[in-house]
Amino acid sequence: MPSKHTLTHFDTELEAIRKRLLEMGGLVAQQLSRAIDALGSGDMATIEAVIEDDRRVNEEEVALDDACIQLIARHGPTAGDLRMVMTMIQMITDLERVGDEAKKIAKAGKQIIGSEVIFVPKVELRHVAAMVVDMLQRALDAFARMDPSSSADIARQDKEVDAIFKGIMRQLITYMMEDPRLITRALDVLFIAKSIERVGDHAKNVSEYVVYMVRGRDVRHEGIEALERESGRR
User: Which spans of this chain does the record mark as coiled coil (predicted)?
Assistant: First the structure.
């Protein structure tokens, strides 16, 4: 765990960054949910709002990165404190990329909503989208509590999301082979499915960062078994 400080400027600034990071996480999770909901309902206004919100996410990424750099420059943290700040910088990048994926979903959704229904393949995306939103929210909650116990479960969910994506891809290929008129919109659906799959990857990354912050061990390339050992250790 990060070293314990008395009440200092460092603690105050660090906590402010943590709070803003969690707020950024909440924003991108909301973006993703809204994009998927709008795709299902055909709500073009919400689609446009999701696209516009990406600017806020980008601005917050820049502001938080700068805040982290200034924190290091002013206070020169070492050991666990430095590890936490540097890992938060990585986490900020992953969250910004989730926002990018939500924007991609909204842009592809715009094309689908504007098309004739008969040329849009019927593929179920809501379930897998709900899965990755849940993964992201659980990873952010783990960060808020500095508790890595859910990291192995999130990694297992990510493997399930990968398998679902492969199934969707096979389904879309079949549609395109059977009716070439569906190809354009099928590709849009495929792009959306891939964005959802990528959000799962980013959620897993965030959960692994929590393990590193709490345990001091980088488990990004060590598999679920290592996550289970580290997330269950007291």
Answer: none
Q: What is the dihedral of CA 136, 138, 141, 143, to 10 degrees?
A: -70
- Assign 57 to helix, strand or coil: helix
Contact (CB, 8 A) for 38 and 46: yes
- With vertex at residue 169, the alpha carbon angle to CA 191 and CA 36, rounded to the nearest 5 degrees, is 45
Q: What is the DSSP letter of 220?
A: T
> What pTM, to 2 d.p., does this model score?
0.90
CA distances from 53 to 18, 28, 200 (A): 21, 9, 20
d(CA 9, CA 15) in angstroms, rounded, equals 10
Cα distances from 229 to residues 92, 153, 215, 233, in angstroms, run: 26, 12, 11, 6
Q: For residue 105, what are the CA distances in angstroms to 16, 23, 33, 233?
A: 31, 21, 10, 38
pLDDT digits (tens, 9 = 90+) for 19-59: 999 999 999 999 999 999 999 999 999 999 999 999 999 99
CA distance 124 to 135: 19
Burial of 118 (0-12, 13-18, 19+ CB in 10 A): exposed
Region label for 219, one of left (φ > 0), alpha (ψ between -120 and 50) or beta (otherwise): alpha
- Residue 122 falls in which region: left (phi positive, over 0), alpha (psi -120 to 50) or beta: beta
> Which residues are CB-neighbours of 68 under 8 A, at least 6 positions away?
17, 85, 86, 88, 89, 92
